Hints:
Blueprint: H1 2-39, E1 41-46, E2 50-52, E3 56-66, E4 70-72, E5 84-98, E6 101-112, E7 116-120, E8 124-128, E9 136-139, E10 143-148, H2 171-198, H3 214-228, H4 236-255, H5 264-271, H6 278-297, H7 303-320, H8 323-351
Parallel strand pairs: 2-10
Antiparallel strand pairs: 1-3, 3-6, 4-8, 5-6, 7-10, 8-9
Amino acid sequence: MIMKDLIMKNSVKFISKKIILRITFLLLLYISLPFYIYAQKTEIKLDTNNILLGDQIQLIIGITLPENARVSFPTLADTLTKDIEIVKIGKIDTNALGNNTMRYSQNITITAFDSGYFVVPPLSFTYSFPPDTTSSYAETEAMLLEVKKVPINEQEDIKDLKDIFGAPLTFREILPYLLLGIGVIALVFLAIWLLKKYRKKEKIFFVKKPVLPPHIEALEALEKLKHKKLWQNNFVKEYYSELTDIIRLYLERAFEINALEMTTEEIKQALTPKHIDETLKVELKKVLELADLVKFAKFFPLPSEHESCFNKCVVFVNETTPKTVQQITERVSTDTLDNSSKTVSNNEKSEL
């Protein structure tokens, strides 16, 4: 009995251990099964399975792998098969799906120029899980593509060929002409600049108006002032303003002092070192002081004082003119009169 009990107990323990091992194995298999199934999920899709000759459609291939996997897409040339041509191979896009998985996809533009049914062959992906360098492979399913001929109505008349469509210009096509235009404009501006810089400028001669000697200018201005008869028409202030301006301009030109900007006292001091008779200085000062009273103090001199101031200015100009200048001026005036008289006589003779 005792032996039977021991045998039974050992059998139960052995069976229990065996059951536990099997359950553990099944649990591990159950946990890892989704990973292996999900890790090798591939996809292939067409926009449509039916096209006309020459139509272009998108073939989308993809694979879903854990995010730590490294994947290599199928290496494609310009054809999938002898009947299916590749027009364009797009970039590989990645998309995180969650649960540490990534979806890799690629768009391929394909076309066909023969009618019939054509098989899109399975495409193979290569992937690995670093640091493990072992490569694994996964393939897409094969697909069937139907290419139809363009339907023709044999009862209709034959139509003319369509006009050639103009393709839009690209920037690369326009660029050479744009650069050529910029170069031509730059050359034109360079030529204009060089012409302006190096061409001989024509010299323009200006005939300067003869400048009258200071005393001649002053005496002519005094004569014009006399004919205006300003003080006789009650323009006393204007008369003295113009009279002092004439004499100040004469002082500025004849004696090189800034008389137009000076006061009466400053003019007196500026004339002190000049070789002018003291009587003339005193008389000129009286004229300037009287003019100041008229302009700034509304003083009204007598008519005799108007005449006296005018005469004093004329005397000052005549007496302060150097004798040599007077002689030259008189000589020029005499020559001018002689030439004028000769011209008149010659004109009279020609008329006779």
